[in-house]
Sequence to fold (627 residues):
Amino acid sequence: MKLVSRLLTLAKNHIGTMIFACVGIIGAAILNLVTPALLRSFTASLESPEGLTKRLLVIYALVLVTAYLARAVCRGITLGVAHVAAWRFVAELTLKVYDKLETLSMRYYQDKQTGELMSRLVNDTRQFEVLIAHSIPDLVSNLLVIIGVCIMMFTINAELALITLIPVPVVIIAGWLYSKKVAPMFRINSRVLGELNGVFQDNLTGMKEIQAFGCEESEHEKMTDNCRYYAKVNIRANLANAVFTPGIELITSIGTIIVVLFGGMLALDGKMAISDIVGFVMYLSLFYTPLAVLARLVEDLQVAAASAQRVFEVLDSEPEVKEAPDAVEIPRGEGKIEFENVTFHYNPAEPLLDNISFTAKPGEMIALVGPTGVGKTTIVSLLERFYDPISGCVKLDGTDIRSASLRSLRAQISMVLQDVFLFNGTIAENIAYGLAFTSSEEFSHITKADGSLEVRGVSEKLTNVIHKNPDTDMIVSSSVRELDMEKIRAAAKIAHADEFIMAMPDGYNTLIGERGVRLSGGQKQRIAIARAVLRDTPILILDEATSAVDNETEAEIQAAIESLAGSRTIIVIAHRLSTVMRADNILVLEHGKIVESGRHDELVARDGLYARLCRSHDADRRIGAAL
Fold:
């Protein structure tokens, strides 16, 4: 009942449409009762002394045709309206789940597979279409028919009607036992499907690695095991149904035989007219058929319940990082960063940052250096508030970031990560991603014209770079203002990306494919840098931003970064010495603490951890040069 109540709450916007569908259901149910009544009357006419006249026969035929036509109209209304309500609800629910996923903190995704979440987002929400457009109308329709048939049967012969009800308790108990048995099976089925989708997602994403390492056979074996297990789970559930459904049909068939037997005896004894027997038997078929359908609906309802539970698990998840109720919108500031006694861990048994404190003044370049796994990337994640510190606080321009709205905080920061993520769109769109004008408002007036798409109501000048899937009309990329193309190109020049972009046939309108598959690693890195430059925020974070470029391009990007120094606060994480040696302050981390800080020359002179890292870097470069 809790699930039903919650579903009704979620579907409140569609209650009116569903009520309209119920009108069609009620009409069809009533008209289902007309045919047996007419045939009973027809048979009674044959038995009467006056007999059946041609005029009366025509009247019966016309009434039957009218009833069938009216029932067809009611069924059409029910199916059409129910599907409209169902698909609109599925669209809303899918968006609601997606919106919830956008609010959840990074820790939520650490132990979740993308494919498993996709299964909840697509497969589980899809089950609500079956529930709303099929299961619920069938449930209501068949219940109404059963109630109406019971009334008619008791009107004809109460004794025979009571005999008809004998199998009902057996069907109810069998349905309850079946529901109790298969409910866990369908929950497991939904979970296993999600896990299987997760494995598919991982393998498709890592297909290059699978082929490069020659692991096709081992991955095939793993997928074989997973697919067989999924089949096994489904087979178990359907074997239970294979016993249950024929069993219900057998019970109702026996009930029919018993009723016909007793009805025949009553007719032979002269206690029941032939017309009444004909009408009763027809009502009997209308009684047992819906009963069997209701029994079969148990499976659909259990599948929907399992899917609903998985969807609600997402909707009920709470973000670890929450905005304060009185969170403020912080204006664009100077970019002063303060870490005050910050302690953090992902696992309580493994502390990562221990009482870290430092200040980055506006316009300074701060470099974070240290062995792998000491928490360099965690520091910038805390600044973006992907996580909250266990103790201590992080301040931006004197404001504790926990008191700021997440949107206004992250509007102050641009990031270039080692693992660059690019969207399936054009180069221009990816560079412009995150700018204020690429908001949802820009897509509010999308119309078709001459087989293409246009955007209206945003700007008088728009570059027509909206793309759609020609088979589905799904929009796969957005648009960029023509008046901003100069800025986009200027940012690309700073990132030394303009030259290779202009060498492409479509230039900045080149579609780069999923995750930028059509670009090299260095090209993707430079587009990400251009994106950060264009965003023009007070703080710029470069997390191994030059890791995928050659030495010549690295030098060019370093020059670009230096040209930005002073105008914004820059935090650099890098293993390459050339990336950090020009920093105003280098923070050296080890075992969760800042063990050294200062400029490059100062730290080298101290001959500590930083000096050892520098010597190791020099040795690596000499080996690379020799090779």
Notes: The longest strand covers residues 337-344. The two ends are 71 Å apart (CA to CA). The CA atoms of residues 35 and 64 lie 7 Å apart.
